[in-house]
Amino acid sequence: MIRLNIKFYGRLLLLLVISSHYAQTLPKHKYYSHTDTNKVKISDAEWKAILPEEVYLVSRKAHTEASFSGKYWDNAGKGTYYCAACGHTLFRSNAKFASSCGWPSFFEQMNKKSIVFKPDNSYGMNRIEALCGRCGGHLGHLFDDGPEPTGKRYCMNSIALDFEPDVKSKK
Questions:
Q1: Percentage of the chain modeled with pLDDT above 90
Q2: What would you measure as the largest C-alpha separation in the chain, in angstroms?
Q3: How far is CA 51 from each of CA 4, 85, 154, rounded to the nearest angstrom?
Q4: Active-site residues: which are they?
Q5: Are 109 and 92 in contact (CB under 8 A)?
Q6: For a FRET experiment, which of 4, 106, 126, 136 has its CA 20 to 30 Å from that of 88?
Q7: Is 90 exceeded by the pLDDT of residue 104?
Q8: Residue 164's beta-bridge partner residues?
Q9: Nearest to residue 91, comparing CAs of 102, 100, 103, 83?
Q10: pTM to 2 decimals?
């Protein structure tokens, strides 16, 4: 009986590991894509239904995560950053820099359509909001205190980003 339970739980654990890995390689929802550039225009209710709550609150309601709390503020990995809501390509890691502000910061977006901007005068501040160019989700803000060559600092919320490391080719 004990031997059967060990075999059973061993197989169950293996199944859970395999299904967890498989789930991570599947698209998050039908609008999530690293290649589709068509605008995503769906209702707020649908966004709420398909996004994890913390992603929904930042991406769709413009909340901000606490500084130094996000998973990417000090990430030094080489790869690509995507919109966590829709999968749109936003930044390459070679445009990331250590700004010491507690949020992931970049000096350049992937291309001119990756991110769009709008004035943000909330909380008595005059800022520029950075939005995903595909789904319009809130990513963070743009400031003019970044390094050369652009002088820009794209101050992003980690929760609004997905990161995929570069895959080294086998020779």
A1: 80
A2: 68
A3: 40, 7, 23
A4: 155
A5: no
A6: 126
A7: yes
A8: 80
A9: 83
A10: 0.82
